[in-house]
Amino acid sequence: MKTTMKLFAYVLIILSLTITSCAKDGEDGAVGPAGTQGETGSDGLDGVDGADGADGADGVDGSDGVDGIDGEDGNADVQLLEYGSETITTGSVTYPMDGVSLNELNESLVLGFYAEIFQTPNAGNSFVTKKRWVPVPGIGEPTLFETRVIIEGSTAVLSGGPSSDYIVNLYDLGTLDPYLTEVTFEEFKIFVIPASSISSPSSPVNSAKSSNDFSEMSHDELITHFDLEK
């Protein structure tokens, strides 16, 4: 019984201390309102884009190259047939054109010249002997006869190769009568100029010369133009 009373007394004491302790502390205050949320820190400002750089100056155009010098006319494929002295008494002479075919004749300009020897007065009673080239066909020198030309080509292949004939006929001036007085051709030359060496509108060559231009050239002009040996 005494023990029970003691325990009860202890409980009362502890309870009393607890109550006394609670009485001394103030009651917890009411929970204050939530604080305002702080502003989110702002991101740093983006940098301003730099201005576009100015376009570079255009480069200076290069100088045009100097045009090359036109090459001299060549003598490719131009044939020059040469013959020695010939004395004519029948009013006709034939020059064989060995190696020249009918096809070549059909595609070429063929020009002939004969050389004659003549004399001109010099100081005093002397004379100077000269040689000149006369085109055929044409008027003879002196003007006592005229020449006409017939060119005969062969289609047959001969044993020695193709051959054609260049026939010069002499006539009394202004007639169809053969000139039977003796005439000497000291030399004779035939130029065979292929069409490829004569200019055309689509492919100008030889300084834009035509067949008529060549026909009007002298012997020496043709030699010089085609750079042929005299």
From TrEMBL:
Coiled-coil regions listed: none
InterPro entries: Collagen
Assigned keywords, A-Z: Collagen, Signal
Domain of life: Bacteria
Keyword Metal-binding among record annotations: no
The keyword Glycoprotein is assigned to this record: no
Signal peptide: 1-23
Any Pfam family: Collagen
Start and end residues of each stretch annotated as Disordered: 30-71
Protein name in the entry: Collagen triple helix repeat-containing protein
Organism: Maribacter stanieri
